Amino acid sequence: MNNKYFNISDTLYDITEKYKETIDIFVNNGFENLKEESQRKSFGSLVTLEQALKTKKIDISTFENLLNEVIDKNINTTAVDSQGKNDLEDYKLKIQGLLPCPVRVPMLNAFEKFIANKPELKNSINYELKAASMGLDWLKEDLKNGSEKDLSDIFISAGFDLFFEDELMGQYKKSGVFKDITGLKEYNKEFTDLKDPKGEYSMIGVVPAVFLINKEALNGKKVPESWEDLLSEDYANSVSLPVSDFDLFNAILINVYKNFGMDGVRKLARNLHQSLHPAQMVKSYVKPEPPLITVMPYFFTKTINERSPMKYVWPSDGAIISPIFMLTKAKKEDELKEIAEFFSSKEVGEVLSHQGLFPSINPDVKNGTEDKKYMWIGWDYIAENNIGELLKKCEIEFKKVNLGMS
């Protein structure tokens, strides 16, 4: 992997000294001794990142992405563009959105390489592709107050609320602003039902949610194998949910509502133990009151230490997915086609799938999850319902139950 910030031959001390924000990542993944400065200097100065990860049997590429995520979030949260400027109005073509944190750096590297030898693109394009952890608030205000003329030409992000709320992307969707110009006639055989039948929205991949089970906390309870199992009263106050990861949490809420009704949402809220960041989730068994079950992005299962009591389960009724959408303006099809084809390409798909465990929709990518099931709400359900309003209702009910008001 081509890291912007460190090499695997760097010592743990070199990395943590230069990027203090990485200390928690190391500590939460089995390197508790790095919490103390004296240990970072003594032990950390003698061990390289590669040696340390091999000793713990932690996947190197995955852990590199974790480190890149936290470093990137800390020092590279301003807009990134091909000319080093932040004024999108200076350019003919504009791209905005969020990329999954673990793959943002390699995806940007690939994109910069793609446009480097295309002067016609390099000199006319500007983009703000921030880390998903930054949230969408910076985009939402622009969408509420803007017009089609001010709208960026391409949007990329996971989730539902941004893309279907009437006051946000929904208003432009109804006006026929967007068109799928990726050129893909069909999606990966795992995702044939994800292709928009109206040809308006595109996708580049998905973020699957799976279960992480703390075997030491089961106390005779059965391992939940499905989302239906997860809603059982047996797991009251025992489930950690990615509440702060709005894209994935909203996908979970809307799918639970569709399949189990508002009662299912209430049961999910009843079972909430706490909300953890995925980097904390993989080491949550060391907490004073560890959750029995953690719902987390599939990506973070690769950081589980083999010797930990944590076991991951792919839900038998399907991993709920948060789609990574890409919206492109129909009026600029000719100018945007090359870019849309790049983001939906096998190259980008393999970055998503192989480096981030975010399965790609590209038909030529082998995701390694061909035997797995997914849970997707479906385009018919989206067409028949106001997704933005449903999400608001689900969120209100979830909070009411969680706060003991219902």
Explain what this protein looks like in three dimensions.
The chain has helices spanning 12-18, 23-28, 37-42, 49-56, 60-75, 101-116, 119-122, 137-145, 161-164, 166-174, 227-230, 246-271, 278-281, 333-343, 346-356, 379-384, 387-402, and strands at 93-99, 125-131, 154-158, 202-214, 239-240, 272-274, 293-297, 310-313, 319-328, 374-375. Helix 12 (246-271) links the parallel strand 5 (239-240) and strand 6. It is globular and about 60 Å long. It contains 17 helices and 10 strands. The N and C termini lie far apart (49 Å). The protein is α/β, with parallel strands linked by helices. The protein has 3 domains: 12-72, no CATH class; 88-206 and 320-381, D-Maltodextrin-Binding Protein, domain 2 (3-Layer(aba) Sandwich); 207-319 and 393-402, Periplasmic binding protein-like II (D-Maltodextrin-Binding Protein, domain 2), CATH 3.40.190.10. Strands 1, 2, 3, 4, 5, 6, 7, 8, 9 and 10 form a 10-stranded mixed beta sheet that branches. Helices cover 40% and strands 14% of the residues. Helix 5 crosses helix 6 (101-116) and helix 12 packs across helix 17. One of its GO terms (biological process) is thiamine transport. One of its GO terms (molecular function) is thiamine binding. This is Spermidine/putrescine ABC transporter substrate-binding protein.
